[in-house]
Amino acid sequence: MTMIRNLLTRFGRSHQLHTIISKEIIKPSSPTPSHLKTYNFTIIDQIIPHIYMPMITFYPNTPISNIHDKTTDLKKSLSQTLTKYYPFAGRYGKVAPAHVDCNDNGAEFFEASIDTTLSDFLQNSKHHQDIDQFFPYALNHDNEPENLTPLMVQVNHFECGGVAVAVSLSHKLADANSLVQFIGDWAKTTRSYAIDPKFMSFEYNINSMGGSLNRSKDYVTRIFKFDNSKINKLKVKVKDMAEESGQPITNLTRVEVLNWLLYTCGVAVTTKNNSGYFKPTNFIFPANIRQKMVEPLPEKSIGNFCMTMQILTKNESEMKPESFIGEFRKCKMQLQGVRNMESVFGFNSNVDLEEMGRTFENAYLSSSMCGFPVYEIDFGWGKPVKATFAGLRWKNLFILMDTPKKDGIEALVCLEKKDMEIFQSDPRLLPFI
């Protein structure tokens, strides 16, 4: 029966390459102390939707260790890491839904074999969605909080001996900064380095476990690579446009000009779908507030310590780079001096989740991972040749990441299929990719 299931897993779809070898639960190597058994969510954690953040790192074959030793080392170090990341091994509370029961139930650990070489997959894979199969359950996770395992891992072995480590972590426990830190700390533990994450429990409860984001097969993800030389040309173009308007911009950053370009092309799609009429649209971006608070949080703080900023463009003139980038900078300045976590929203517990949901209905969400040490994650086999996110099935999403050689930026763009055709052909975009 197991063999039949494996064959179905292996050949169920023409582009499906993996066979699940094993599954087990990895528990912390030592029990969580009684005074840490309950981990309360921050106010931001509580309104985060029930989604997973799926990140994967790819490593070429090395003669350092064989497949069995690599997997054994990863299981051992994950168990040790979970002792420090104890909420990740717990389960969501059922009676008081604003906390995690740190009961040491553990993380799910899958092992899979991949019927191709790493280089063949990276070179020949035509769809970003092909990466989804390298994650537990191919990212088809249950959205009910009481059924969620906060952390799931799948270690994928390629025919050549290469490895892909896929981590799927509940967003309610961590932001992208925390996710990268966790994987990096797991890698450090594998190499026998000490780690020191900071978990802070809060008593603030808004009686909400957030909503759910609907994923759809009608959304597709494509990666657009912007070389540094092309980004510099884009900076010159933006600078010239701003000077011509009489509102010059200095010290342009890569993230600023790329966000303007991607958003401009995205709004052009929205306009075309609206019979050519401009439709007011939100540009939304999360920003790390750990070091921006009056009393800065430790940089290694684990949780959702970010604020979601937004720019509403009501007409075409507000799409001009000097207007958009000016608002972008103004929003970032407003982050300075946040008093505490309770003041993040400015209105105590009266968080209008329905209103927040409406904000996302006609919006583009952008998240920058540039500068994150994703290419420093070393489990003892060297640095990854590729790191990326998977499972992107949400409308109008941009994720910016450094390229492996840091010679540019990769933009992961998720749009509806029909919108992607318009987006990727935009004459404003083509000169820079």
Question: How is this structure best described in words?
Answer:
The model is unreliable at 1-14 and 346-351 (pLDDT under 50). The chain starts with a helix and ends in a 10-residue tail after the last helix. The protein has helices spanning 2-11, 43-47, 67-84, 118-124, 176-190, 228-244, 254-273, 321-334, 353-359, 417-423, and strands at 18-26, 38-40, 52-59, 91-92, 99-101, 107-114, 151-158, 163-170, 219-227, 281-288, 306-313, 363-368, 386-389, 397-402, 408-416. It is 28% helix and 23% strand. The strands form three sheets. It has a six-stranded mixed sheet. A six-stranded mixed sheet has the order 9-15-14-12-10-11. The chain folds into two domains: 2-190, 2-Layer Sandwich (Chloramphenicol Acetyltransferase); 219-432, Chloramphenicol acetyltransferase-like domain (Chloramphenicol Acetyltransferase). It has 433 residues and is of the alpha+beta class. The radius of gyration is 22 Å and the shape is globular.
